[in-house]
Amino acid sequence: MKTLSVLLLVLSCAPLTAADAPAKKRSPLVLPDNVEKREVVIWSDGTRMAGDLYLPKGLKPEDKLPAIVLCAGTGGTKGGTQARLAPVFALNGYVALAFDYRGWGASESQLMAVEQQPKPDAKNEMTIKVKALRWQMNYTDQTEDIRAAISFVAGEPNVDAARIGIWGSSYGGGLVTWMAANDPRVKCVAAQVPGMAARGPAAVKYAYDLATKQARADTEPVPIETGKMTGKMSTYENMRVNPTKSIGFSALDAAAKISVPAIFVVAENEELSSNTTVESVHKALIGRGIPSSYHVINGITHYGVYREGFEEATRVKLDWFNKHLKVVTKAKPDR
Predict the structure, then answer these.
(1) Cβ neighbours, 10 Å, residue 194
(2) Contact 192/176 with Cβ under 8 angstroms?
(3) pLDDT at site 26
(4) What would be the CATH architecture of the domain defined by 2-198+250-324?
(5) Angle ∠(146,193,297) on CA atoms, nearest 5
(6) pLDDT band for position 95 (50/70/90)?
(7) What is the pTM of this model?
(8) DSSP calls for 259-323
(9) Residue 66 and residue 321: Cα distance in Å, rounded?
């Protein structure tokens, strides 16, 4: 584990993103000599997402490695925490895919027409003024983005498509919990400081009322000015939230369907979500006979998992993937 500790020390100099609540500017990431990084394009429902693929150098055509798809939290990008973590996985025999959701980071924007669409020409093409939709928190579309990322990595020549894991942090931790329950290609999941809050009746009603207003153009069809975050999340000035996109999405409910090994890494002094909820998910999985681990990093708050808790969090998740994803097992029937 000495090599891993040295690598984590080096990677601690990588830049942090908004989701990591940076305390100071950091130096650019320097990849280990035996890890290569490739820029890739991932198509998600007609929009190009930017991705970085990390692989061990010197792979042969016949080599088939397990893969891990990394899914960001609020405001996170492939150049932040993912760029610190992906080389660790690649150095340990994985293909790791970091990517930006549509409209986040380096990925292309989803588009909204700001004027009535003209009739398309014979090629179904048109010229029209549009508005770029950026930094939207959107469960509906971002689960599809993760599905597209899984689909992309499943087609990599050096990836064993039967051994794909997913990693997610904070907002992304809730997303990967949902994906682990709903995409049979996911064989192992790691969620750190995951958001799994249950929505009460008032929040559900608000979302449906807002959906009516959006459909009738009584408010912005997509929240740009009206979707600014408040409270503890107001520091994310660039982010926008659309409650209507949470209708029908529940990481907590989805967890009841998970049938693959899952690890949950939480902060002892978590202030943004509920460790009690996460632990209840873990206990329910154990009760159903599903391999599950609940790991508490002592002495840290939510954002500490990106700073003083980063090495410990990385170590336990790597151990989990090594135990449950590296070993080739007999295929299970689709869930």
Answers:
(1) 31
(2) no
(3) 53
(4) 3-Layer(aba) Sandwich (3.40)
(5) 140
(6) very high
(7) 0.90
(8) -S-EEEEEETT--SS-HHHHHHHHHHHHHTT--EEEEEETT--GGGGGTTTHHHHHHHHHHHHHH
(9) 9
